[in-house]
């Protein structure tokens, strides 16, 4: 198993993993979008510099040359910039009645884990755990001392994983039609080097 930063060529394998999350979230704005069109839009987003190594970072778990898991996050202050990418892509697609827009999910002062997904064929093998263990490196690289995430109240298995990793509930919020716990993990911040 290799944990590494995603490359544009990984996008077609990342898209179905992200679609798993969208399915679980039951987003009404996406329910009428044909799956091939949604996968095409997600793939386009994960080929952009913004999603891969710019304002946001995408990390993948690779096994036998295949992407079997992914994590996607960014500093909370960059949320609007990151979200605008998918909004612009969907605005250009006839498959979307209106451009897809998300509501705010994060807070300033945290590196926000927007998405974490593992292929159904590879769940239960510790891949989510390995991806979570890699995230402090990227958060510190972005000079963030806290990682935040949201977990659906109806997903107790994910909640247990995050608690085992040291995340603590810091609040609650609604995203779409689902109620979520907001959780945070204090990771400390690396020392900044003076120039």
TrEMBL record:
Residues of the N-acetyltransferase domain: 1-188
Top EC class, one word: transferase
Cited InterPro entries: Acyl_CoA_acyltransferase (IPR016181), Bact_Acetyltransf (IPR050832), GNAT_dom (IPR000182)
Superkingdom in the source lineage: Bacteria
Entry EC number(s): 2.3.-.-
Entries under SUPFAM superfamilies matching the protein: Acyl-CoA N-acyltransferases (Nat)
CDD domains: NAT_SF
PANTHER family: AMINOALKYLPHOSPHONATE N-ACETYLTRANSFERASE-RELATED, AMINOALKYLPHOSPHONATE N-ACETYLTRANSFERASE-RELATED-RELATED
Protein's UniProt name: GNAT family N-acetyltransferase
Species this chain originates from: Levilactobacillus fuyuanensis
């Amino acid at each position: 198993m290799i944990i590494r930063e995603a490359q544009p060529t990984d996008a077609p394998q990342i898209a179905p993993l992200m679609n798993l999350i969208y399915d679980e979230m039951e987003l009404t704005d996406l329910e009428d979008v044909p799956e091939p069109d949604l996968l095409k839009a997600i793939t386009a987003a994960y080929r952009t510099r913004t999603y891969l190594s710019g304002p946001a970072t995408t990390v993948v778990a690779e096994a036998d040359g295949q992407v079997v898991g992914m994590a996607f996050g960014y500093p909370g202050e960059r949320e609007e910039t990151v979200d605008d990418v998918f909004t612009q892509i969907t605005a250009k697609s006839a498959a979307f009645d209106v451009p897809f827009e998300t509501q705010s999910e994060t807070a300033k002062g945290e590196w926000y884990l927007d998405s974490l997904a593992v292929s159904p064929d590879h769940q239960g093998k510790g891949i989510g755990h390995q991806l979570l263990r890699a995230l402090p490196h990227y958060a510190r690289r972005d000079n963030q001392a806290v990682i935040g995430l949201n977990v659906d109240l109806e997903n107790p298995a994910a909640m247990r994983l995050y608690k085992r990793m040291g995340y603590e509930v810091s609040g609650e919020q609604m995203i779409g039609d689902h109620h979520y716990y907001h959780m945070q993990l204090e990771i400390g911040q690396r020392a900044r080097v003076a120039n």
